[in-house]
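Field reference: sequence -> structure
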Amino acid sequence: MLQQLYKKGDDDSRNSEKNHKNQNRKDGDCEKICRNLKCKGRNSEKNHKKQNRKDGECEEFCKSLKSEDTLTPNECVALIKNLTANCKRPGKNFEKILQRKCLKATANCETSIKDSIIQIYPKYKAYCRKITNSNFKRITLVANSSWVGEKTAHAENVDVEVVLPEELSWKSMEQQNDFLSISFTLFSDTTLFEDENNSTILNSKVIEVAVGNTSIHNLTEYVNLTINHKLSMLNNISQHCVFWSEDEDDNSTGHWDTTGCKTIVQDNHTICQCDHLSYFAVLLDFRTTNNTLDEKVVISLTYITQIGCGISAIFSAITIFIYCVLRNVKSDDVTKIHMNFCGAVFLLNVNFLTNLWLSMVNSDGLCKTIAVFLHYSLLCTFTWMGIEAFQLYLLLIKVFNTYIRHYMQKLAVIGWGLPVIVVLVCVAVNKDNYGKLVFEDQGGNNVTSMCWITYDVVHYVTNCGYYSIIFFGNAIMLIIICVKLFNLQRQRIKEQESVWKDVWTVLGLCCLLGLIWGLAFFSFGPLHLVELYLFTILNSLQGFFMFLWYCAMKRPSKDETSSYTTST
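Structure field:
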């Protein structure tokens, strides 16, 4: 293996002694690299410096060889296999780390001899050239199936285009980068970048862009990468611009990360805008496109929700205030149930609005706490919806023998106590069920975030499942009421006013029973966007609708008004 590793040709036996010395020297240097790459940093800044040191050591190893001994990619692969085989504690990711560094070093090593080079190999293509701060301007790099280099007027059938901003020049000085060379590599073999999720990469292409001897980050002008994919993406596939992040543990693979990158999806190409240099790719996600929305839609829905919840919270508070002022008037159980429902809606709106602001605070404990309160207030709202339907059942169907001792106290225990049990069970099972949840658009860009349930199973069981039971029970109750109203309408004189009164009664009951939340079950198909807007508008204004319902309930009827006028 060692003879095959460093042998320059099958008929170079005359230099076997010299090759043997070079081999021993190379082995020693490789073992040194192996030991140095095992170092661990104590903080993120130190880790960043360590990563730059790794690059430098690999390049120093390459440069320590004579120019005629410069490693080819095939020799590099063989060298790494020999190195990892002789390491005392190799990790499964260690070989891939070294191989990526060594391939980069081979290109930079040749650039130290020549002003620019182009390497074309089956598994990757690389372009490298010397640069200086004084003459650096905006550079456009391109690559296709057979060529890689700077863009010219004759460049055709471009698969990848990378535009480097002029800001790199002064950022390199700020971040102590020597800014001696620029390298652009297009990997057609993605085996070096396999993560634990077996992610699918667009066009099976990974792009590396590097400048100088350290990585450059925190750019205000984006590095723009355009990847052509010939055909338009299917509707069930979303794309995410990512960069490769090395894991500190050599026993684990690296992973793809979206931090610092934005995705712009167009018909036949995808644009990545990133604020740093690294290995880049576009991941394909076959699961989430139908569940994601355009960034403008997400932002507009967020604003509608905030405005609606603000209005709802104000009118819920006004309703409760009016009830407290009129407490000298004897109130029945129906009114008391309405007030508890209003209280639940008020808590939900306030918790939601404060959640959006407090989620920006970088505190995991605070985020979990407000997520728990938001979940609790939502379950309380659902529970009081069910209690409203139960009260209608007693009034309209059972009618007689409906006295229940300590009725309101028992309802209060159910309405405010049952959600406590559900939330406590969720926390007891796993406190990480709550945390920060980031919402992405179709391009995989982070649009907004909130503190909420982090696991889909918990959400579907405790929210969707819980509400489904309430929804179907309340829907049956509404159908029964509609039948009774229809029968009453047939028995009385066909007056236009009574018809409209019944219509408004049914609409009011839909809000009171929370059936408008059921729009979430129908948010699919060609009209799903319209349904989402209806769902957002109607549910965010539920407190306002409750205020109107309460005012309509307390408004004196015509009979009461006429009798009062006659008596006076």
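Note: The longest helix spans residues 456-491.
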